[in-house]
Amino acid sequence: MTSAFGAPTLVWFRQDLRLSDNPALRAAAERGAPIVPLYLLDEETPGDWRPGGASRWWLHHALERLGENLAGKGLRLLLRRGAATQAIPSLVGELGAERVVWNRCYEPWAIRRDREIEARLKQANIAVESFAGNVLHEPWTVETGAGKPYSVYTPFWRAIKDRPVEAPLKAPGEMQAGPQAAGERLEDWGLLPRSPDWAGGLRETWTPGEAGARGRLGAFLQHRVDRYGRDRDRPDMDGTSGLSPHLHWGEITARQVWHATQRHLADTGGSAEDAWSFLNELGWRDFAQHLLYHWPSLPDETWKPQFRDFPWREDARAYRAWCRGQTGYPIVDAGMRQLYAIGWMHNRVRMIVGSFLVKDLMIHWREGERWFWDTLVDADAASNASQWQWVAGCGADAAPYFRIFNPVTQGEKFDPSGAYVRKWVPEIAQLPDRFLHKPWEAPAQVLQRAGVELGVTYPRPLVDHKEARRAALAAFEGVKKGAA
DNA sequence: TTTTGAGTTGTTCGA
DNA sequence: GTCGAACAACTCAAA
Q1: Max alpha carbon distance in chain A (Å)?
Q2: Which of A29, A261, A11 is nearest to A129 (CA)?
Q3: pTM score, two decimals?
Q4: Helix crossing, A347-355 with A381-392: angle to 10°?
Q5: Is residue A27 predicted with pLDDT exceeding 80?
Q6: Residue A109 appears among annotated catalytic residues
Q7: Can you say whether the dihedral through the CA atoms of A31, A34, A37, A38 is positive or negative?
Q8: Is the domain of A146 the same as that of A289?
């Protein structure tokens, strides 16, 4: 089965669905041996952390694009399904491959899996090479003066911000194809939603794939990065990069984004402050990977032990109202509906809805984490877990427990004209600005003129924020005493 | 070892 | 309307 050019190399694609700046692919291409590119739908990933609905939609399209891009270089993407620890070694045998390469992932289940596969392959005398994954700096290369991992962001950032970032690699040219093996058809994986097809908003919003990622980065650098510091907090404006899902799936790398931003700054003399506040967000992304690598229980367990006894409430009705954007707090509902419609929510609003779930409703942060996992196209174990723990106040580098977002104040401050709420909560769009973020305070006449009937066309507030805040503070007080 | 300064994203209250 | 202080104490990171 081996070609005249020798035994093939298996290039295993995972969260690196791109050709450019792909160290594993690059290394395989440079060896000159024939290449078999593979994507494996891994059935060994723990059930809670298999791609959710929105992620599956993204993955489908990302694989289509990757397949086309590889075809352009003479390769055919092989699709398989199965338990990776079995499937990879057995495919290697089937192909007569003598080498397997991949780019690293940092989720605990991925690390376990990769170690096991590496051990099996090496036992069979197969060469295995792994390369840096999609981060600026790998998690173990950043440590405190005492040789320990960081658990506070600011010193972590100080430690990396001036460190050189590896220059991105070019995509390989034409490559030598390895032997054909029987693969599956993407359509048969059922990654796309049917009956109902809820992906309309996703299709209108996103362009999965390497070209889509590059396009987004280009537009961001051209139009938005120079105002990033101001606009990034405004859900009513198009002020963020929108790169998160592309970064998660590795259609673009943090290294590419880092260097492109630096180049933009050097070439255009744009605002350094704004550019650096964007680069700082890449720092946060690395920090989340760093935390997950060093504290692998982060997605499942409350990081600060004293919070394990926090009196979380079971309230299926309130949880459902939150998920569906029916809490009666317009900014919260707008965010949750945006999420459901397009698979993404503005970062500022993520904090507001998170604080509301955890502190106003006192529902466990893991419930929020789970919903986000299923509905976000950028669902990423590290970022998702660290942000939920942050907002709940129980994580590494947590928000102080008394930092409880007021959904009315936040709405008025960051969506001052109400454009965001009006877009996503159209049934109250006719309300005047001064009542838009607090419809329950509007006089009956104003409500009537706007065609709003509270409790009928739009819900009354699920809880009274002032009261809920008091209750949350009291509960946090209890956790503190419990620890003492 | 001890000390010191500091810590993403907020709110409320009272002057 | 605007401003500063209080909210709590703890732990991290570095000197």
Answers
A1: 83
A2: A11
A3: 0.96
A4: 50
A5: yes
A6: no
A7: negative
A8: yes
